[in-house]
Design goal:
By secondary structure, this protein is of the alpha+beta class. The protein has 3 domains: 286 residues, paralog of FGE (formylglycine-generating enzyme) (Alpha-Beta Complex); 313 residues, Neuraminidase (6 Propeller), CATH 2.120.10; 278 residues, Rossmann fold (3-Layer(aba) Sandwich), CATH 3.40.50. It is 19% helix and 26% strand. Helix 11 packs parallel to helix 15. It is globular.
Length: 950
C-alpha cells in the first residue's frame, strides 16, 4: 500500500514530463556537477535520431565523476574517480513501466508480474529478470542481444534467481542496463540546466531537464519513484581517470551489484549520484518493491573494467558454467579448473567448490604455461616454455590460492610440461621433460629426456632421470606406457613384465602423420587423446575429410584409434587434456574460433561426444581440470546388518549454498548449518541474532563448562531466528541449556519477509534446506553422514577459514564508532507498531518454548554508538529514545512471567563503557569489543541456576 501512495504523489511524472515520445539529445564535455554545458552543433534533420527511438534520450558522451572524496560517504563510494565516455548511447527517459514490461513479456513469453498500474514503474524484479527483459526487447527489434547465459533458474514466484554463465557483451548493439558511469552521467545532467534540441529543428533551447519531478522534458525520476538497477558489479573506486569504464570484473565474495538513485521514501528533490546500494547487501537476485530499472541502448567500444587492486583491464574472463553444471558433468562439486590467460601471461583458476564461480588470476612476473594441479588439489605446477618450442624452460610450483604465494623453483637447467603423478609407494612426484620442442627428428628427440622429481611439504626432492626422449604427454599408472605429441605421436612401450625404465621400446603411432596435444588418461585405460592436421589415418577413421583440429582423436593402449569427437560448430579444438577422478575420465580443451583465437574452454564428455562450455575470454590456453578422487561406497551395508543405511541424495544433502544469489547471506547460513551439524552433540549454548551477535559474541571466550556455537547471521529477524531455533536447533542440540540472543531494538520492526531471511522464501533456491524440509528437518532420524556432506558441499574458502576455527564467530577490525548515522525514520513506531508487536510476541513465544525445555535464554542489547544519546534515535535504524525506554522496560518485565529469561542491557541508552577501540562502526563491535562483551555474558550465565554438565 505504501508504494502505491508514494507513486500517487508523483502522477505528473508520467502524465506530463514523461509523456514526450520525442527523443532528446544531450552532449556534455564537462565532468563537473554544475550547470555548465558544451555547445553541440545541430544535426541535419534527415539524420537526427530524435524520431528513431521513442522514449529515449541520446547522449553523445563526455566526462563524469563517479564517487566522492567526502569522508562521510561509504568506503565503496570513495574516492572521486573520473570517467571518460567517448561514445554515444541512448537511455530511457523514465523507468520502465508495468505496461512497457508487460508488452514485451507477453510477446517473449516471459513471466508477467502483478502491477499496480500500466503507467507505474515495474518493481520487485531481480537483475536477472531485467537481463531477460532487455534481451527480449533486443530480439523483438532484431537487435543484438547484449547478454548471454546458459541455464536460467526461477523461484517459486517466477522471478529469475540465477542465470548460470551470464556474460555481458559491451560490444553488442542492443538493449541493456546502463553502466553506473552512464547513469551518473545522465543523472548529473538531468539535475542541471541543459541545452536540448528543439522538436521543430529550430536549434537549442536551455531548459530544466526532468530530475526529481519537474514538469519538463528529459530524464525523469532519477532521485525519486524507485531505485534503479545498473549494469555493473560493485567494486572500489580509485583516484584516477578511466575511459569507457564498465565497472568491476566480478562481484567479489558476495557477488554484489549496484543500485542507483532515490525511491519514493527518499526526501524529494534530493539526488545523491554517488550512492551505490541499499540498506542490505544487493546481489543479482535481490528484489524489492522500491527497486526498478531503466534501459540503455548502444555498444561500449573498448570497455575497461577495474578490479579492487586499481588495475584496469580491457579483457575479462567469464565463467560460463556454475557449480551445479560441474556437478552434473563430473559427479562432484570439488573441482578446480586452471588455465593460462594468454592476454596477461598469468595462471588463472576457478574453484567450483569454494565459490562464487569467479575467475581468480594469480598475478606473476613469470610467463606461465601448461599448468597442472596436484593430486590433492592444493598446488599448481607450471613452466615457462611450451609444447612445440625448443628452448630452455623453468618449472615452478605454487599454492593454488588467491593469496599468490611465492613460486617454488626447481633448480635444474631446463624443465617443461609438468605432470603430477602418484607412485605405487604413495610418493607424489612431478614428471617433466628437458625440452618440449618439435619431436619429428629422431636424434633431436632423443637428445632430450624425461625426468621426475619428488614434491612433498612444499619442497622439491632430488630429480631422477627416467629415460631418453621427451615424453611429456604422460606416463601410465602401471609405468608401462608413455606418450608425447609435438609433430609426431610417439609412444614408449614397456615389454611384457617390464617397466618403462627397465626394458621398453620407442615407437611412432598414427602412421607417422602429424599430431599434437597428446594426453594419457590416468584411469587405468591407457587411452591417449590427441589432435591432428587432417592426417590420412584420421580421415580414414572418420570416413570423411575435416578441418585441422576439428576432430579430437582417442587411441587405445596400442595406439589404435577407437573414438573421434567433432568440435562444436564454428570452433576447433586445441590444448586437449584428460581430466579424471580415478574412475571416470573426460577431456578439457580450449576452443578456437574461425580467426584462431582461443576464446573458450570446454568440457568434452567422451561417453556422449558432447561439449559444455566452461569459460570465455580473449585468449585462454592450456586448461587443466582437477576433480576429487572418486570414493566408491557400497550400495548397502553387509548382509548381516538388520537395516540398510539411509542413502543421502548427493545432489541435495548439505547443499546449503550455490551461486544463485537468492539470499545475500546464504554463504553465512551455509557455514552456520555446518557448525550446527558438527557440534549438535557437544554444544550446550547457542548464540542467535543478527550481525551484531555474529561479530560481537565469541564462542571461544566462554569458560567451561559452557560450550557455545555462534549461529547468528547478518540481518537476521526475530521470525527467522525463531524458525531456525524451533526446526533445527531445539530438535538437534540435545544438550542445549542456554540460548543467547541479540535484541536489536532499532530493528524490531523487521518482519523477516525479505531475501535476507533464508527461511522465509529464498530457502527454495538452495536444495539442502528443501531436502531438510521434505524430511521434517531430520527430527525423527538424523542421517549420520549429513555433516560430512555439508562439510564437502560448495562454499567459500574465505568463509570456511574464518568461521570453522571460531565456531561461527567472525571477528572484525577496530574502526571506531564514527558519527551516529540514522538510516530509518526514528518515528517508525508510529507506523509499524503492529509489526513490532508481532515480533515482541514471537520473542515471547520463543522464550516460552525454551521454558518448556528448561532452557535459559539471555536477551542481550548489544552496545551501539554512545553518541546516539545526543540524538533523538536509539540507534542506526532509528526508534525514538522514549519508545526505546518503554521497550526495554517491557522486555525486562518478561522475566516475571518467564523466570528462564534474563535481559542483559549492555547499551544502557548509550551510557556504556565500550570505546572507539571496541567498535567496528555505528552498530557493531569489533574483535576487541567482542572480547569485552563475551566474558560478561559468560559471567551472567554462571550466575543462573543452570546445570551445564561437564
Amino acid at each position: 500500500m505504501k508504494i502505491r501512495k508514494a507513486y500517487l504523489l508523483f502522477p505528473f511524472l508520467f502524465a506530463a514530463a514523461c509523456s514526450n515520445s520525442e527523443m532528446q539529445i544531450i552532449s556534455e564535455e564537462s565532468s563537473q556537477q554544475s550547470s555548465d554545458s558544451t555547445e553541440v552543433e545541430p544535426q541535419d534533420s534527415t539524420t537526427n535520431p530524435l524520431k528513431e527511438i521513442d522514449g529515449m534520450i541520446r547522449l553523445s558522451g563526455g566526462k563524469v565523476t563517479v564517487g566522492s572524496n567526502d569522508k562521510s560517504f561509504k568506503t565503496n563510494e570513495r574516492p572521486a574517480m573520473k570517467v571518460v565516455l567517448d561514445y554515444e548511447f541512448f537511455m530511457d527517459i523514465h523507468e520502465v513501466t508495468c505496461g512497457d514490461y508487460d508488452k514485451i513479456a507477453k510477446e517473449a513469453d516471459l513471466k508477467r508480474f502483478p502491477c499496480k498500474g500500466d503507467s507505474l514503474p515495474i518493481t520487485d524484479v531481480t537483475y536477472f529478470d531485467v537481463v531477460l527483459f532487455a534481451n527480449a526487447k533486443s530480439s523483438q527489434e532484431k537487435r543484438d542481444t547484449v547478454y548471454t547465459y546458459g541455464k536460467a533458474t526461477f523461484d517459486t514466484e517466477g522471478h529469475c534467481s540465477n542465470l548460470e554463465g551470464l556474460t555481458f557483451h559491451p560490444e553488442a548493439e542492443g538493449y541493456r542496463l546502463p553502466t553506473e558511469a552512464e547513469w551518473v552521467f545522465a543523472a548529473t545532467r538531468a539535475w542541471n540546466t541543459e541545452k536540448s534540441w528543439n522538436s521543430d529543428n529550430s536549434g537549442y533551447t536551455a531548459r530544466e531537464v526532468c530530475g526529481a519531478g519537474t514538469d519538463s522534458a528529459g530524464f525523469c525520476d532519477m532521485a525519486g519513484n524507485v531505485m534503479e538497477w545498473v549494469n555493473d558489479w560493485l567494486g572500489l573506486f580509485r583516484d584516477t581517470t578511466i575511459t569507457n569504464y564498465a565497472g568491476a570484473p566480478d562481484g567479489g565474495e558476495k557477488g554484489e551489484r549496484i543500485l542507483k538513485g532515490g525511491n519514493y521514501a527518499s526526501a524529494p528533490n534530493e539526488l545523491n549520484p554517488y550512492s551505490r546500494g541499499d540498506v542490505y547487501t544487493v546481489t543479482s537476485a535481490t528484489r524489492a518493491e522500491y527497486v526498478g530499472f531503466r534501459l540503455a541502448l548502444g555498444s561500449i567500444p573498448d570497455a575497461l573494467w577495474m578490479g579492487n587492486d586499481g588495475k584496469s583491464q580491457a579483457s575479462i574472463v567469464s565463467p560460463l558454467a556454475g557449480s551445479e553444471t560441474i556437478k552434473n558433468l563430473t559427479g562432484t562439486y570439488n573441482v578446480k579448473l586452471a588455465f593460462r590467460n594468454d592476454v596477461s601471461g598469468n595462471i588463472a583458476y576457478i574453484d567450483y567448490l569454494n565459490g562464487p564461480q569467479a575467475v581468480i588470476e594469480i598475478e606473476d612476473t613469470l610467463d606461465a604455461f601448461h599448468p597442472d594441479i596436484s593430486p590433492d588439489g592444493n598446488y599448481v605446477a607450471f613452466c615457462t616454455g611450451m609444447e612445440g618450442i625448443s628452448k630452455n624452460s623453468k618449472l615452478y610450483v605454487r599454492k593454488l590460492d588467491k593469496e599468490a604465494s611465492d613460486a617454488i623453483q626447481l633448480n635444474v637447467e631446463s624443465a617443461a610440461i609438468p605432470r603430477w603423478r602418484v607412485l605405487e609407494n604413495g610418493d607424489t612426484v612431478i614428471v617433466y621433460v628437458t625440452n618440449a620442442g618439435n619431436n619429428k627428428d629422431e636424434t633431436t628427440f632423443l637428445s632430450a629426456s624425461t625426468w621426475q622429481v619428488p614434491f612433498t611439504n612444499g619442497k622439491f626432492g632430488t630429480p631422477q632421470k627416467l629415460f631418453d626422449g621427451a615424453f611429456h604427454g604422460g606416463i601410465s599408472e602401471d609405468n608401462t606406457l608413455a606418450v608425447t605429441g609435438a609433430k609426431l605421436l610417439r609412444a614408449r612401450v614397456a615389454k611384457s613384465g617390464s617397466t618403462l625404465t627397465q626394458n621398453a621400446t620407442n615407437t611412432i603411432w598414427y602412421d607417422s602423420a602429424q599430431a599434437c596435444n597428446a594426453s594419457l588418461a590416468q584411469d587405468g585405460s591407457k587411452r591417449t587423446a590427441f589432435l591432428d592436421f587432417v592426417g590420412k589415418p584420421g580421415v580414414k577413421f572418420v570416413g570423411s575429410s575435416y578441418n585441422t583440429h576439428e576432430r579430437l582423436f582417442i587411441a587405445d593402449s596400442a595406439g589404435k584409434l577407437i573414438q573421434s569427437i567433432k568440435s562444436p560448430a564454428g570452433y576447433a579444438f586445441d590444448h586437449t587434456e584428460w581430466a579424471t577422478d580415478g574412475v571416470n575420465s573426460n577431456i578439457v580443451a580450449t576452443l578456437t574460433n574461425a580467426n584462431g583465437a582461443h576464446t573458450k574452454i570446454a568440457f568434452v564428455n567422451t561417453k556422449e561426444s558432447s561439449t559444455t562450455e566452461l569459460v570465455e575470454g580473449d585468449e585462454l590456453w592450456h586448461p587443466a581440470l582437477w576433480m576429487e578422487k572418486k570414493e566408491i561406497e557400497p550400495d548397502t551395508l553387509p548382509v548381516d546388518t538388520a537395516e540398510t543405511e539411509f542413502q543421502l541424495d548427493p545432489d541435495s544433502a548439505g547443499i546449503y549454498y550455490n551461486a544463485s544469489g537468492a539470499c545475500p547471506y546464504a554463504i553465512e547460513f551455509r557455514y552456520k548449518m555446518e557448525i550446527l551439524w558438527q557440534y549438535k552433540d557437544t554444544a550446550n549454548t547457542v548464540i542467535l541474532g543478527s550481525s551484531r551477535a555474529y561479530h560481537g559474541i565469541n564462542p571461544l571466550l566462554f569458560d567451561e563448562p559452557v560450550f557455545a556455537i555462534n549461529l547468528a547471521t547478518p540481518a537476521a529477524s526475530i521470525s527467522g531466528s525463531s524458525f531456525f531455533f524451533k526446526n533445527y536447533i531445539l530438535p538437534h542440540v540435545k544438550n542445549l541449556k542456554t540460548v543467547v540472543i541479540a535484541l536489536d531494538l532499532d530493528r524490531a520492526y523487521n518482519d523477516g519477509k525479505n531475501p535476507n531471511n533464508i527461511f522465509y522464501r529464498t530457502y527454495a533456491s538452495y536444495p539442502g534446506f528443501v531436502y531438510d524440509k521434505n524430511h521434517n528437518y531430520w527430527v525423527d532420524n538424523y542421517p549420520p553422514k549429513l555433516f560430512e556432506k555439508t562439510y564437502k558441499a560448495p562454499g567459500k574458502d574465505s568463509e570456511a577459514k574464518a568461521l570453522r576455527p571460531t565456531r561461527g564467530f567472525k571477528p572484525m577490525p577496530t574502526n571506531g564508532w564514527g558519527a551516529p548515522n540514522v538510516a530509518e525514520d526514528s518515528c517508525w513506531m508510529d507506523t509499524k507498531a503492529e509489526q513490532f508487536q508481532a515480533n515482541f510476541e514471537q520473542l515471547e513465544d520463543l522464550i516460552a518454548t525454551c521454558k518448556k525445555s528448561d532452557i535459559a535464554i539471555v536477551g542481550v542489547i548489544i552496545p551501539v554508538n554512545p553518541k546516539y544519546k545526543n540524538t533523538g534515535a536509539f540507534g542506526y535504524r532509528g526508534l525514538r529514545r522514549s519508545d526505546a525506554l518503554q521497550v526495554i522496560e517491557d522486555l525486562s518485565n518478561l522475566s516475571q512471567t518467564y523466570p528462564n529469561f534474563v535481559l542483559m542491557d549492555e547499551n544502557k541508552m548509550g551510557d556504556h563503557d565500550y570505546t572507539d577501540e571496541d567498535a567496528l562502526d555505528n552498530a557493531h563491535l569489533s574483535k576487541a569489543g567482542a572480547a569485552k562483551l563475551t566474558p560478561r555474558i559468560d559471567s551472567l550465565i554462571k550466575t543462573l541456576n543452570i546445570d551445564l554438565g561437564q
